[in-house]
Amino acid sequence: MEFWFTERHSPNVxxxxxxxxxxxxxxxxxxxxxxxxxxxxxxxxxxxxYMMLTEKDEFIYHEMMVHVPMAVRPEIRNVLVIGAGxxxxxxxxxxxxxxxxxxxxxxxxxVVRVCREFLPQTACRLDDPRVHLYFEDGLRFVRGKxxxxxxxxxxxxxxxxxxxGLFTKEFYGNCYKALGDAGIMVNQNESPFYPQDxxxxxxxxxxxxxxxxxxxxxxxxxPTYPSGHWLFGFASKLLHPVLDFxxxxxxxxxxxxxxxxxQLHIGAFALPNYVEEILEHVEVE
Length: 285
What we know:
The chain has 9 helices and 12 strands. Strands 8-7-6-9-10-12-11 form a 7-stranded mixed sheet, with helices on both faces. A 5-stranded antiparallel sheet has the order 1-2-3-4-5. It is globular and about 55 Å long. The chain is α/β, with parallel strands linked by helices.
């Protein structure tokens, strides 16, 4: 008998992976947490039945969330990570010797515990001495911060359940206040392909534009996410993600990456026409 994990991507589309075995399942205070093992994608994590990451393609998401802002402002020292309980974002950040402090705020401590045990590929750097873990609501945590961070990375789940508050105008406004004068915020911005996801993407970006003078969307191909076409948001008080991009400085660091490179950086901000049309009345020039 075959065992398949299936996620609904739209009312008419389902995505399935054949599973060898289920490694773990629990119901935390906030959500159901499952870890599976598959032939094609290795181990993978789901929350409330939605795919969060797989061992095979997680590097794409985490590299694009971290290295894009770091290549725009290589001198970043203080970083706030909201969500990211799997540890992949922190893993990429700790590759930069210049970063002095990483505050990671994850509402569900159980997610971190499970990932430490079953997904050490991503959770391997959470014990770095620069990393400070806070198990609380990211919306509440950032509310009292002013001019403390150079970079905020919002690695949230989808805009419902525990992650819903991280897609509000209040939250993005508080992130703006928590950043320094040249601060950058990067968020996962959903997919533009299926209508329901596109509405959530447009709504989130509109709220970011209302808070930040510079707001751009960029893209990556992540096979296990709905449609495979995934977007990120880049917002800043001062820095433009392409005009202020410093490929020479980033390449001089000698970091080995599997997806991100400095040619891809520029191309990622060149969006397909259908995405530009969705953002047409939202994005600031």
